[in-house]
Amino acid sequence: MSDLPSRVDINEEGPREGFQIEPGPVATADKIALIDALSATGIRHIQVCSFVSPKLVPGWADAEAVVAGFAPRAGVDYTALWFNAKGLERALAFRDRLQVTGSIALAASELFSQKNLNRDRQGNIEAMRKQTEAHLAAGVPVTRIGVMAAFGCNFAGDIPVARVLETVHDGLGIAAEAGVTITDLGLADTMGWATPDRIERVVGAVRSRWPELRLTLHLHDTRGLGIANAHAGLRMGVASFDTTVGGLGGCPFAAHKGAPGNIATEELVLLCEEMGIATGVDLDALIDVGHLAERIVGHPLPSAALRGGSLTGFRNRAA
Amino acid sequence: MSDLPSRVDINEEGPREGFQIEPGPVATADKIALIDALSATGIRHIQVCSFVSPKLVPGWADAEAVVAGFAPRAGVDYTALWFNAKGLERALAFRDRLQVTGSIALAASELFSQKNLNRDRQGNIEAMRKQTEAHLAAGVPVTRIGVMAAFGCNFAGDIPVARVLETVHDGLGIAAEAGVTITDLGLADTMGWATPDRIERVVGAVRSRWPELRLTLHLHDTRGLGIANAHAGLRMGVASFDTTVGGLGGCPFAAHKGAPGNIATEELVLLCEEMGIATGVDLDALIDVGHLAERIVGHPLPSAALRGGSLTGFRNRAA
Description:
The structure is a homodimer.
Chain A: E1 9-12, H1 14-20, H2 28-39, E2 45-51, H3 63-69, E3 77-82, H4 85-92, E4 102-107, H5 110-117, H6 121-137, E5 142-148, H7 161-178, E6 184-189, H8 196-209, E7 214-219, H9 226-235, E8 240-243, H10 265-274, H11 283-297, H12 304-308, H13 312-318
């Protein structure tokens, strides 16, 4: 049953996910310091900001200043997030510093789309058709589909596997109409419903239908099962994960307070390295960045690995 | 590969593990309130105190008052921990309220024994021979072996599987000399070195050599892998786990500060129930007890499930 990858790609989203939910304002210089520190750990993909309305997300009013301010490091891809034409336009101003690629974002739960985007399934498909056209017209490649609420939904409850497959199919239809080829599929546990067996079922069904798609799991540690879910993904051969250093962040749209962040980067790196799966990341350097993130937000972050530390020091002293 | 149990036994150790490491004094009445609240959740095994030297562990100076004070509930076993003849004597005074059974406690790391008990492997075997004799002389059954540091050690580093097997063999030798039959084996990740693949290797090796022993895993969430490790145990057919409500506690002897507690009872119960494995525990009632534990210690506990909550309410509202 096990199909462990030999190498895992980490998509660090701490700078983007982490600061949008923090109650206090985070200084632009601190956001830049975190990005620069992450760049030095061996991580090769960092999402640095959201180009969203400052009215809706005041924490990202300084997105431009952050992107202009960090020090790009060779070999590291820097990305951003946006949801509409205005956001795309803001991202395009930084094509020299950001890897600007488009994504077809859908939800496996229609109720989730309705509550958060005020769009039903068909309305969402229409919106993504238009967004894909806009991306392509701007010369932005669209190679990825993202499926939110792929493992369950606070509004709709359990999500059947068939519904996830339909949603991917919807996305592939949008891509085919636009004449683009999808290479990447992200499955997001937006509200923390995943369990290891749900990961196995969904990933297994998606992989057997579309073996050519490279899968990324976006997991939240809402109920303490995040790393167990990542491990289930690894066992199914998933080799790409969205994570946040320290477990920063959370989904501000979830229907309960205190939604915790994504799985912590250092916990996933520790798991992988201890299992002999390469990540290219220096775990001890990453843990130092986690402590920097704690100083920036001014409170402890949920990651246990930040407190437990790596096993390297113990091993070296024992040898 | 998967050999999931249909039912899992939870051994709740929060009252015992949780309060020995808290910096402030915890009122006797609060300890009793926690035990009584746990008794009402469906948990059937609760370790209520340590009979240890009040000089070494001041937090358990009130062990007698706690045992005398809780309200025993039919169908629930209450146990205690002790390490020497004096502790055994104190436990024996409560045979009407406690299930008094003996354990042969060994460590797979000789360095761990030396650092914590000032005994080498042979010295520990001698001590356990004497303790087993003392238990049997007092009419206390000895049916269990416990192996500490079974997955790694802060002093000795990685622990070979062969060393764990030798340690179990040592314990079985002590039992055979004393003429008792061992039915239960506890494997403890005392310092948080376990990973899912180490769990598979150690549990697999132990099970193939001694398939008749019922295994219990005692896991700490030192580095965020605790529930992933428990899931690996479940997949190997392990059906008994030591846990603490809220993730209370920690090992005061570990060689680093801030050693986090055991895996959180409510996270394991949530995982099991979502996977269709019965625990007999009312998860929502248990989460309420976790919040009670937080009020008692006066700070948030590490369990994410305490904040995320169960999925029951969402599912009911969605239905």
